[in-house]
Fold this sequence. Notes:
With 141 residues, the protein is mainly alpha-helical. It has one domain (2-136). Helices cover 83% and strands 0% of the residues. The longest helix is centred in the N-terminal third of the chain and has 40 residues, at 2-41.
Amino acid sequence: MRNSFHLSNIYNKYSVLVNYCLIGFCGVGLDFVIFIVLTQKIGLFYQYANFISVSCGIINNFFLNAFLNFKKTNHLFLRMVSFYMVGMVGWLISSLLLYLLIERLRFSIVFSKLIIIFVVTAVQFSLNRLITFRSKQYEAL
Length: 141
């Protein structure tokens, strides 16, 4: 019983991060499935597919985070623009890393995408927590 109490304290302390990661898995899954379909089934160039799949994941994750995790739904359009811009930073990072891993290091497209997802998630969580879902940013509006 003591361990569950301790685990619940840890969850309470890090619940936003844990929920962000759980929501992120939904977005990652969506991103990955769309990426695979576009590159492997349709034959779309991996950079174009990456832009489309990342955008779908960003939009999905914004609404889930806004309503379920951070519970910040005021100024929704501005927050969405901010979240999407942070997502585009992630997309730029992922595009550069995809190029390096696929073109320079000759890794497979699928393996490269899997590696990059973890790097980009860490960057985006930090930026979104500091920028998009910060309370004081939108109080003056």
